[in-house]
Predict the 3D structure of the following.
Amino acid sequence: MSETTERFTKILVVDDEPNVLRMVGYALHTEGFAVVVAKNGAEALAKIQSETPDLVILDVLLPDISGEEVCKQLRMKPETLDLPIIMLSARSEVPDKVRGFEAGADEYIVKPITPEELIARIKALLLRYQQVRHITPKKPARVVGFIGAKGGVGTTTVALNIATSLALQQKKVLAAEVRSDYGTFSAQLNLAQGQNQSSIFTSDLEHMQARNIYPHLVELPSGLKLLTGPQKVADYRELEPQRMEAFFQIITPIFDYVILDISCHPDGASQAAIQQCGYVALVVEPESTSLAAGIRIADQLNTWGVKAGKFGIIVVNRAPLVVPLKVDQIKTQLGHDIIGVVPNGCDVFVAAQNAGLPVITYRPGGDITRVFSEITKKISDAPVWGV
């Protein structure tokens, strides 16, 4: 590492012994590192959120929670999943070291240690971390947008089930509602009305960081993470395109897939979200009003740069129709391929919603689940991803 790099490298030292904090802090300052200190586990977690250090030196025996527990919590969060951690301990037995590594530590150093050796270990770990990040950069998430021909065609239901299907494949998936008014993720899943997107998109741009976004996400048993839309009229407000762009810059390195439930209103936020998508699915019902609205949405998406190959149609039979439109007619009128036809299943959808579950987990062996799984595969295998 160069001296310039060290001057911009921040290290958090976590230890309840003042002498250790002084010794380690002095050694780091001498080498040009910026130093932040914490005296217990809770303070360490708070400092990691507020200070975003580049490396953590973590004592095992802390007065509140153990260093091992702090390490485990950090490894469970996407924003600190690969944060370099050196565990420092007076315990030198092999089982102690094994527990440290199993908790997620990159290095386990036994006290006492000379300042020279500690600095050498720090520099080696930081260099290794930088080289790995350079050689194997994280691919940005595949962003898939779902937009309805009009309200009430089942867009949210489709988006939630596709997102769940991906999460069940052990993918890191975020499903987010992109809308300025009421979002129905919470209602469909019987979630308590808690944090939602409104707090994120009204914060200052400089405060839009992963550590500020992550507490607003809801995690489901499938592993799927949700960012729900506004739940109260007081939270309704237009989403600014520049905030949407900043949001995507932050979240796409964290997840494998980002699934968007996008409002059909042609506003700046919807356009900004659509332009982040590698693939867009238009949800329609097989009836004339929905088709007419779908044609207008398809024309709008075309003006926003969504071309063939990045665009597919999902037909949802929400209720029995006397004379439903034929799939070929819908394809011809909209000018894009049909990637799935969801069969009528009012009873199943209502029962799943009452249970607070997507259909794909409520009835995993059913016909509707099979269709959602097929749609998921088509989207995942779309040529636009370059696979």
Observations:
- The longest helix spans residues 115-135.
- The domain at 3-135 is CATH 3.40.50.2300 (Rossmann fold).
